[in-house]
Design goal:
Elements (H helix, E strand, L loop, with lengths): L1 H8 L24 E4 L5 H6 L6 H10 L3 H4 L5 E3 L21 H11 L6 E5 L1 H8 L7 H6 L8 E4 L7 H6 L2 H18 L3
Parallel strand pairs: 1-2, 1-3, 3-4
């Protein structure tokens, strides 16, 4: 695992496409029980090097019902985004994650994480990659049908403040999915 993480930190496969240059942000440990697969680091995370070190991370931790000490304990939670580096700014937000990372690194990391029991698939890119044909017609339908992916996966919307409208339009998420998510997180973490 240490060898792979070191290789990832030195990765520059897509540097020509990264305005701010490569700065891979990934956290993994062979003991990790929960895997978070998000999109890609934002600019703030690119600068700090700390995954989910932004308002989206605050919201994600609330949804999960964990504090920072648990969230950043790699022996409990691994954080492996679809794209490891900040992809840059687009017209309506950050660009999509670079397509090179997941095929290049995810399988190698997963092979060294035999303890992962639950994977949180955050956003459409993670859901498309990991659910394939099992995903529904769109993110809302996929998240709404979260029970179909249990007990090993839970699809979630992105916790970005930009998703306030989606959250207000879909109150069932807070009422049904978040309590189930918190229950599953407790179940896997309490086994420590």
């Amino acid at each position: 695992m240490e060898k792979i993480l070191k290789e990832i930190k030195q990765c520059a496969v897509c540097k020509e496409y990264l305005d701010l240059g490569p700065n891979p942000v990934v956290v993994a440990n062979p003991k990790s029980k929960i895997l978070i697969v998000g999109q890609a680091p934002g600019k703030r995370v690119h600068e700090s090097g700390i995954p989910w070190d932004d308002p989206s991370g605050v919201q994600l931790r609330k949804w999960m019902g964990v504090d920072e000490s648990v969230f950043y304990d790699a022996t409990r939670i691994a954080i492996v985004p679809m794209g490891f580096c900040y992809p840059g700014k687009g017209k309506t937000g950050d660009l999509p994650p670079r397509p090179e990372c997941a095929p290049l690194w995810h399988q190698a990391l997963l092979e060294h994480m035999p303890s992962v029991e639950l994977t949180l698939l955050i956003g459409q890119y993670a859901q498309k990659y990991y659910l394939g044909n099992a995903k529904k017609k769109n993110l809302t339908e996929t998240v709404k049908n979260y029970k179909a992916y249990l007990p090993t996966q839970i699809p979630l919307p992105h916790p970005s403040p930009r998703n306030r409208f989606w959250l207000s339009k879909n109150p069932w998420f807070q009422e049904s999915v978040v309590p189930e998510l918190q229950k599953r997180i407790r179940m896997h973490l309490d086994q420590d």
